Structures are given as structure tokens and as C-alpha cells.
Amino acid sequence: MMSTRRNFIQVSALGIAGTLARPLGARAGNSDSVTGLTTGIAGYTFAKFDLDRSIAMMKRLDMHYISVKDVHLPLNSTADKIQTVLSKFGDAGIKVYTVGVIYMKTKEAVDEAFEYSKKVGVPMIVCVPNPDLLDYTEEKVKTTGIKAAIHNHGPDDKLYPGPRSVYELIKDRDKAMGLCLDIGHATRAGEEPAKAIIAYKSRIFDLHIKDVSLAAREGKAIEMGRGIIDFTGLVNALRKIQYKGICSIEFEKDMEDPLPGIAESVGYFKGIIANGNHHHR
Q: pLDDT tens digits for 164-205?
């Protein structure tokens, strides 16, 4: 274990040196050019913080992509409000690549979500439509051209505990209906994330990346690399399917003071991307 850890630290240090050597204009360390894997943040991570503090944390983490949660951009936002929020992100070098998670329990909620996404100008919604609204959601996907990435929420979720339960309901639907695979909740629901990525590859639109302490309902959010998820296997699976989306890190362990845990998680995940050869245990 020590030698692996030492190698990992050496490689991570080299990664930092490589980042510093790049021209200042380059976005340091955000995308891995070998694999094309790009990291981002799932906005729920900053649920306890206002927009300015959230942006300040993202800048410190050198993160440039966010899935915006309604806490920072309410669904009923005016055009002016949307413009203000998007400008703040833009000025900080951050791209809003999707919105969500948005829950859809009624047709009105589906309409509202797609209207909102259109106004925000994103190509995809991370959402949880009730299964009886999937036909209606599919119609909206077809008429708007906006993709629906359905989020799985773990063993406590009656609708979509793991990715399989989503996939079974959308596999014969429009190709723009897919999954936001939450790897922590999938693991707690008894599904191995790397296997799910291979099995549902054409429908993996988005990822919520996190670690959990146990592959069971009792599993708790934990800093990446301290839990039980095999991130090397995950990254290899993403390379295999040539995943082109964002790997959005969602940190839920300490919502009041998340920065140290996110920093550790981001560093760990980027280290795994940079160095696919060592298993993390």
C-alpha cells in the first residue's frame, strides 16, 4: 500500500508541476487531454452558500463547469435574473452546462422545467420525472431538442434507486432520454458504477461523482478516495465508452464547510485521471 500511495503522491506532484508549466491563459488542470474527461461541480454541493461564495469556491478549486441548482437560479427567475446569474458565472470563467436536479411531479412542472432550460440556454436538464410523466417528458424532449438526463437517487428512492431502473424505462424511448448517473447512489443501491457505464453507455449523459463509505443503504457521503468506490475502474470505463460529458463532483459530507472535502475529492479524482495505472486501495 505504501508504494502505491508514494507513487500516487509523486504522480500528483508531477501533475501540479505540469499545470504550473502551462501558459497562463490555459485552463489549468481542468480537462485531461489524453482522455478528454472534464470535471465540473454539481450545484447542490453549494446549497448552503449564496452565488458569490459558490463562485469564489469554484475559482479556488479551478473548476469551470457547473450544473446549476435552483437554489442559485430559481425556476421562476425573470430573464434579467437569469442574465445576471449567467454573467456572474461567465465573468468567473464558469460555464453553466446543465440545470438540475429538477423534480417533475406534474405536467406543469415538466413544462416549467423545459421552459426554464430554454431560457437559461442549456442543452440538457438533470431531472426526476415521475414515471407516469415519461411519455410527456419524451414529447417535450422531441419538440424542444433539450435532453433529459434522469437522476437515480439511491435505495431510499421509490422511483429510480439505481441506473438500471431508469434505463429500463427509457431504453426504447427517444435517444435524447438518458441518465445522470449518480455513482454514490448507484453504489448504495447495489450497482457497480463502472459496469453501469458500460451497460448503458449510449444513455449516460451526465455524472454525479462522489464516494460512499458502504455499498449499502447505510453508506454515507465521504471524501473521494476514502470510501469504497473504485475510481480507477470508473475512469477506465469512461475512457472505454469515450464519455464526452462532464464528470460533476457532488460533495455532500459537510454542506456547511465543504471546501476542504471538495478540494481533496477534486485532487484525488484528477490524480486518478492523470494516472490510470494504480488502483486506489
A: 999 999 999 999 999 999 999 999 999 999 999 999 999 999
Q: What whole-number distance in Å separates Cα of residue 43 and Cα of residue 152?
A: 16
For residue 5, being part of any structural domain is answered with no
Is there a domain that residue 261 lies in?
yes
Length of the chain: 281
The Cα 244–Cα 247 span in angstroms is 9
- What is the spatial distance between Cα 130 and Cα 127, in angstroms, rounded to a whole number? 10
Do 153 and 161 contact (CB within 8 A), yes or no? yes
- Domain containing 95: what range? 30-274
CA dihedral defined by 263, 268, 272, 277, rounded to 10 degrees?
Answer: 160
The cell numbers describing 68, all together, are: 446549476
In a domain, 35, yes or no: yes
Asked if 35 contacts 272 with a C-beta cutoff of 8 angstroms, the reply is no
Beta bridge mates, 66: 41, 96
Q: Which pLDDT band, with edges at 50, 70 and 90, does 146 fall under? A: very high
Q: What is the mean pLDDT of residues 127-135?
A: 98
Gyration radius from the chain CA atoms: 18
Instruction: Please give the Cα distance from 38 to 237 (Å, whole number).
Output: 15
**What total of structural domains would you count in the chain?**
1
- 26/152 Cα distance (integer angstroms): 35
What average pLDDT score do residues 213-221 get? 97
* Contact partners, residue 102, CB within 8 Å, separation at least 6: 70, 75, 109, 113, 116, 125, 126, 127, 128
17 domain-assigned: no
Environment class of 178 (CB within 10 Å of its CB; exposed 0-12, middle 13-18, buried 19+): buried
The CATH number covering residue 127 comes to: 3.20.20.150
